[in-house]
Amino acid sequence: MTSTTLTHRHIASRTAVALLGGYVFTWGLIALGVALLYSAGMEFHDAEHLSYIVGLLAFLLAFLVAFAARGLRRVALVLVGGGALMAAAASWVQGLIIAAGA
Questions:
Q1: Are 26 and 80 a contacting pair, CB within 8 Å?
Q2: Which of 44, 75, 82, 91 has the smallest C-beta neighbourhood within 10 Å, fewest atoms?
Q3: Separation of alpha carbons 100 and 102, rounded Å
Q4: Contact 93, 39 (CB under 8 A)
Q5: How far is it, in rounded angstroms, from Cα 27 to Cα 35?
Q6: What's the CA gap between 45 and 15, in Å, rounded?
Q7: Model pTM?
Q8: Under the phi-then-psi rule, with left for phi > 0, alpha for psi from -120 to 50, and beta for the rest, what region is 6?
Q9: Distance (Å, rounded) from C-alpha 26 to C-alpha 62?
Q10: pLDDT digits (tens, 9 = 90+) for 67-95
């Protein structure tokens, strides 16, 4: 049986990944959700509100996963990398929306 000692550094790094990584992931998810729902024909504010509701649940899940997962680097990579990719995809979709409306 292995013993796990929790150091202040370990707890601080888990908390930082949970808060900052969760924020980046949630921001990308909300931006992509608004862009996709709006491009699908939903009213902007309805798309925004629905994306915020889903984003709140996603942040909660990301926060909990950051503390439950075994490998912290993998969680940080998925949260930050996934959030950045979703934000880039949202920017691309918004560019398409603007180009189609012009």
A1: no
A2: 44
A3: 6
A4: yes
A5: 12
A6: 32
A7: 0.89
A8: beta
A9: 8
A10: 999 999 999 999 999 999 999 999 999 99
